[in-house]
């Protein structure tokens, strides 16, 4: 018998049936590209509240514009979902993002681990907050700032 609270049990282990909103969210993010950004409208609520380390966005139209700008500037961006914890109308999704940007890391792949907290209403995502290391994603790969960021991390680890 598992003594963990209900909210900490991964649905994959308990039950293979995930809520529709979660299944759709995972499917869209695993195929999202510049060619199919319209898929965002199939998973997000009109009043979506989206937060990541750089932006806070309210509303589906603004979110779509934000993603359009993000995806126009990368060669590729792929998500691998590693773990999901779900309870009723919300979930925590742990993922690895692999992306290539022409001005970062000499255009080579950058890998960033992160997680998202999402909430749903009426089978659409109404709240989405991403947690990730912005240094790992961006700062460490900028020519001058990258060296400084790596130096600070090394000093902090001592």
Brief digest:
The protein contains six helices and six strands.
Describe this structure in words.
- The structure is a single chain.
- The protein has 158 residues and is α+β, with helices and mostly antiparallel strands.
- The chain contains six helices and six strands.
- The protein has helices at 11-14, 20-29, 40-43, 60-72, 134-137, 143-157; strands at residues 44-51, 56-58, 76-87, 90-100, 110-121, 124-132.
- It has a six-stranded mixed β-sheet.
- It starts with 10 loop residues before the first helix and ends with a helix.
- Residues 1-15 have low confidence and may be disordered.
Report the total helices.
Answer: 6
Indicate the structural class: alpha+beta
Radius of gyration: 17 Å
Instruction: Say how many strands there are.
Output: 6
Distance between the termini: 42 Å
Please give the structural blueprint.
Elements: H1 11-14, H2 20-29, H3 40-43, E1 44-51, E2 56-58, H4 60-72, E3 76-87, E4 90-100, E5 110-121, E6 124-132, H5 134-137, H6 143-157
Parallel strand pairs: 1-6
Antiparallel strand pairs: 1-2, 3-4, 4-5, 5-6
Core attributes:
158 residues, globular, disordered N terminus, alpha+beta, 6 helices
